[in-house]
Design a protein that fits this description.
The chain is an all-alpha fold and 80 residues long. It is 72% helix and 0% strand.
Length: 80
């Protein structure tokens, strides 16, 4: 069961990485350059978004696995 949660975590994180990488390419190599000039604030915001989303994903997957093993096992048969 934990392997399924780990697979979900990696799929979620890679979707976020692909989305942010496409956003980085669009901003950095845009012909108009969007007048952001890719300053330090924007790069630090991307890094913060990486780590916060991955940490939240690990936390909620751990919480869901703990609920699955504690709460759902006490239900009568026929539930889940």
């Amino acid at each position: 069961m934990y392997i399924i949660y780990i697979i979900y975590i990696y799929i979620y994180i890679y979707y976020i990485y692909i989305y942010i990488y496409i956003l980085y390419i669009f901003i950095h190599f845009s012909p108009y350059h969007i007048h952001l000039y890719y300053n330090e604030f924007f790069s630090s915001f991307i890094i913060y978004f990486f780590f916060s989303s991955s940490i939240l994903c690990f936390f909620f997957s751990f919480l869901a696995s703990e609920l699955h093993h504690t709460f759902f096992n006490q239900l009568p048969n026929g539930w889940l």
